[in-house]
Design a protein that fits this description.
single chain, 266 residues, 4-stranded mixed beta sheet, binds zinc ion, coiled coil, C4-type zinc ribbon domain-containing protein
Length: 266
């Protein structure tokens, strides 16, 4: 058996392991940042919806107040005219107009009341939310119950956390960029070498690593495959010790003597 071929493959696994180690340093951070950004976007949207609703209420309230005031002015003018009415017919006509304006005022006031009641309900919901927060009953809080100030604070917290995690990740990426680039270059060269020297072993390696499995080549550990802990048959030990490889019957990994990994580190 040509043992130098397996040495080439062990070297590739060793290099891939080093990259994996660096990636593990960042592990979780990109996912954490994604989750935070989603929370952040959701909070921003909630705040925008509330702001839009408040602005709408403000505009409507202003409009209703203006309408009511205009009606009152008209009523005053009609009353003024009534004092000058020359006959009952003229007086009654003005009374009818006053009545109409009074109805308009009543309608505007109902509209204003509706807005106030809506705002009161909003306040009560948020008060309930505040109470639930105080009692740590977060899972019972609906979006509407989240008090404005808590929501604003949440926004700030999410912003800060996202920034912090991004800085952390950037730090790791910058710190390790050179190392990763150098490793990647070595990996590319090693793969080229394997393509010419041991294509079938490389294919086997790539096939094993095509899923989530990263360690296709593993050292023999206490006479077992260190990938899945299945015992390696005794009659294969000698071959492994001599520098050969064994395909684990249980997980399919390529099992070699750990000495080969030490040699690959040189
Ligand atoms: Zn195994």
């Amino acid at each position: 058996m040509d043992h130098s071929k397996i040495n080439l493959l062990v070297r590739l696994q060793h290099l891939d392991n080093q990259i994996e180690k660096i990636v593990r340093l960042q592990k979780g951070l990109p996912e954490e940042i994604n989750a935070l950004e989603e929370d952040l976007a959701f909070t921003v949207k909630q705040i925008e919806t509330r702001t839009a609703k408040n602005e709408e209420h403000l505009k409507l309230r202003q409009h209703l107040n203006e309408t009511a005031n205009a009606c009152r002015e008209k009523i005053d003018a009609f009353r003024e005219k009534q004092t000058l009415a020359r006959n009952n017919k003229e007086y009654d006509a003005l009374s009818k107009q006053i009545e109409y304006e009074e109805k308009e005022i009543a309608l505007a006031e109902i509209g204003l009341q509706d807005i106030s009641q809506g705002e009161q309900r909003t306040r009560e919901m948020q008060e309930k939310g505040r109470q639930l927060i105080a009692e740590n009953r977060y899972d019972e809080i609906s979006d509407d119950m989240m008090p404005d100030d808590v929501l604003a604070q949440q926004l700030e917290d999410f912003k800060q956390q996202t920034e912090q995690k991004n800085e952390e990740l950037n730090g790791i990426v910058i710190e390790t960029a050179e190392e990763v680039a150098a490793l990647q270059k070595q990996i590319d060269a090693q793969r080229d070498l394997l393509t010419t020297e041991a294509k079938r072993l490389l294919d086997k390696y790539d096939h094993l690593r095509s899923g989530s499995l990263r360690n296709a080549v593993v050292p023999l550990n206490r006479n077992a495959c260190s990938g899945c802990n299945t015992r390696v048959p005794t009659n294969r030990h000698t071959m492994i010790v001599q520098g050969g490889f064994y395909l684990c019957e249980s997980c399919g990994r390529i099992v070699v003597h750990e000495r080969l990994f030490e040699e690959a580190d040189d």
